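quick one before i forget lol
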Amino acid sequence: MTDNFIQVIASRTVGELLTDYPVAYDFFQNLNLPPLPPNKPLEDALFVVSDDWLEEFGLRRFEIPDQLAAFLRTMTATDVLRTVAMLTIIGGQDKDGNPENAELVLKPGSVAAVVGPTGSGKSRLLADIECLAQGDTPTRRRVLIDGTEADEETRFQMEGKLIAQLSQNMNFVMDISVAEFLGMHMRSRSRGGEKWLIQECFECANNLAGEKFTLSTKVTQLSGGQSRALMIADCAYISTSPIVLIDEIENAGVDRRRAVDILVKREKIVLISTHDPLLALGADLRVVIRNGGIFKVLETSEREKASLHEIEKIDMLLSNARAKLRSGERLED
């Protein structure tokens, strides 16, 4: 840590530090410091803490900015908000060894739908992307980040991963509330103290889920659809991963179109394995999988986009029918 950074930390107001480095909130709490005036530089704000208080907790006033600077370096080194300007998938081979002869380029805010029959290899493509394959998977595909292959640390690190993947089955094992889960994830992402973000993420999840839940609901009590809704909102608002992979979101019991729109607005690169025509035609690209390989990459045409309106009408009829059946109504009309 440079002396210059320490000086910057000491001269910034407490309010500015908490805004730029939310995890500093946890640092102050761990030191048992009383509330500091937000409008004063840190080195001045520390003078409101009495000598007796500092002595009781074994603290030295002049060392606290140095300790905070070191703490911020440790926390942000593993969870820097990564940005990806371009994700490139270079084709390998299908199940018979035939070359794919394909190259797919995706940028932030874009959506690619991965389509094909069950068992064709859609999940394999998502798995190749998730592990940032470098010709070392059965398909021999290569995945590049901003035009280059990822190093070993980037590929296999657990913290600050570039890619978040939502599978079809979401199961929680910790018996904690939704609020506790979101708070825990925020702290692990160096975003402690942002209570408003927990509320925003929770409201987003409830808007996606078919049945509402509360912040006090235990995550182990959430249905499959509610769990997926919570994790989609988490990916959008809390996760630092710029790339999101989703496996068959139409089976999740969530508002799938809205879910994708939320991720796109957060400038995520989104790939969805799907059988749903609404999602497939609503994407920028369709990656058609056949016999384990990329068979075609199609841009959604203007005529296909125009047909979405009619498909949405049909989908609305089916959604209304499902809702009535679930509520015990008859469909005689």
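fyi The first helix runs from residue 3 to 11.
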